[in-house]
Amino acid sequence: MSSTASFATSARRRLAMPWPGLLGLAILLLWLLVAAFGPLLLGHDGADMGDADVFAPMSVHHWLGTDYLGRDMLARVFEGARYTVGIALLATLLASGIGTLLALLAVASTPWMDAALSRGIDTLTSIPSKLLALIMVAAFGSSLPMLIPTAALIYVPGAFRIARSLAVNINAMDYVTVARTRGERRLYIMLHEILPNIVSPMLADLGLRFVYVLLLLASLSFLGLGVQPPDADWGSLVRENIGALPSGGAAIVAPALAIASLTIAVNLLIDNLPGRSARGDH
């Protein structure tokens, strides 16, 4: 076999994704589609009050039964996906973006700047995430504009520590030293020499961070401190339909399964990213 054919075969193997990863990707794309167009796909609003019984079982008219007010649970889950996925995604992007930027600044700057940023991040890390979330919500309220920066602030330290550990190794490479010697500015070194070499692992960390944020927001909503009525995310759907728990009604099972399916899908996708299995074979 020629070297070109061998290289092409190796590239295909690295880009190929095992079926668990494809399954995770399919579920993730499904929930993203539901979050973007859910109510339009159903043709009716989750807040519509029908004539169905409270906590009605699954039927042809109500595929996931009804909630504590007789509303269609499928529509409620679809509507909740908009808040659950949307808030978690925005908060995750904000946390990873800020954490990565601070890490690049710390590594590419002077030692005292690195020490100051690292100690400041350590201060945030020392506060338990749930406790910090409760403090922020108690101080500023649980409105949507506050939930996003609250969740982002909690997970900035984790993103910073991962990005910094990667950037420190890249910063010691010869080509970074050469760039610094030829007089390149700090911003150039951050964005052109270090950042491109940590993008891949940071994308994997982004997926994990999304799961953490998702579960944090669901926990806050279950405690009544997250998304407030009449809006609802999956965590608040579990809380408001807690009356269906003794009978195992779909009203409480459906949003719980939605949370589980999304978190499992993201983990399946991360664990089977193209190239990971190939790297593990060597």
TrEMBL record:
Signal peptide stretch: none
PROSITE patterns registered for this protein in UniProt: ABC_TM1
ABC transmembrane type-1 domain span: 81-270
Topological relation to the membrane, as annotated: Multi-pass membrane protein
Transmembrane helix found in the keyword field: yes
Membrane spanning stretches: 21-42, 83-112, 132-156, 210-228, 248-270
UniProt-listed InterPro entries: BP-dependent_transpt_permease, MetI-like, MetI-like_sf
Xref: CDD domains: TM_PBP2
Sorted UniProt keywords: Cell membrane, Membrane, Transmembrane, Transmembrane helix, Transport
Record's subcellular location: Cell membrane
Similarity section: Belongs to the binding-protein-dependent transport system permease family.
Entry protein name: ABC transporter permease
Lineage: Bacteria, Pseudomonadati, Pseudomonadota, Betaproteobacteria, Burkholderiales
